[in-house]
UniProtKB/TrEMBL annotation:
This is Chemotaxis protein CheW. Residues 3-147 form the CheW-like domain. It comes from Chryseosolibacter histidini. GO terms for cellular component: cytosol. Gene3D superfamilies: CheA-289, Domain 4, SH3 Domains. One of its GO terms (biological process) is chemotaxis. Coiled coil: none annotated.
Length: 150
């Protein structure tokens, strides 16, 4: 039975999780550089230890509206793998909730697709107490961008 360590977070009042394997770190959003002519889901870029990391408005990327940036906004720095390539990308979130270990066998299939939702970016839904978390798949979220890099 596979166990997946998961970072739980909130974004635009919705609950999400992402495999910790993809998470390099979580930082406070301090200074966001604007990137001219970037796709609209790119919020900007940050400088982290001498590297420029693109920052994605995850809410826009997955069609959940737009992230309202305030002093509590955090950035999850993700390492996304695609074949032999690896990209580092930041995603805006509202807050980190917890880190838990989930049982892969307890992941519920994302039933929302029957109602017209695009669930291609999800590995499934996971229930923690009374709340359901949408478990994102980092590679699927950035598949189109990764394909462009090749």
């Amino acid at each position: 039975m596979k166990q997946i360590p998961c970072l739980l977070f909130s974004l635009n009042k919705e609950l999400f999780g992402i495999d910790v394997e993809n998470v390099l770190r979580v930082i406070n959003l301090e200074k966001l550089m604007k990137v001219p002519k970037a796709p609209d889901f790119i919020a900007g870029a940050i400088s982290l230890e001498g590297n420029v990391i693109p920052v994605v408005d995850l809410a826009k990327k997955i069609a959940l509206g737009e992230t309202v940036i305030d002093k509590r906004t955090k950035v999850i720095i993700l390492e996304v793998h695609h074949h032999e390539d690896v990209i580092d990308v930041g995603v805006l979130i509202d807050e980190v909730i917890d880190v838990i270990t989930i049982q892969e066998s307890k992941l519920l299939p994302p039933v929302l697709e029957r109602m017209g939702f695009d669930t291609q970016t999800l590995d499934g839904m996971y229930k923690v107490e009374e709340d359901f978390y949408m478990i994102l798949n980092a590679t699927k979220v950035f598949e189109k961008e990764l394909a462009v890099l090749i």
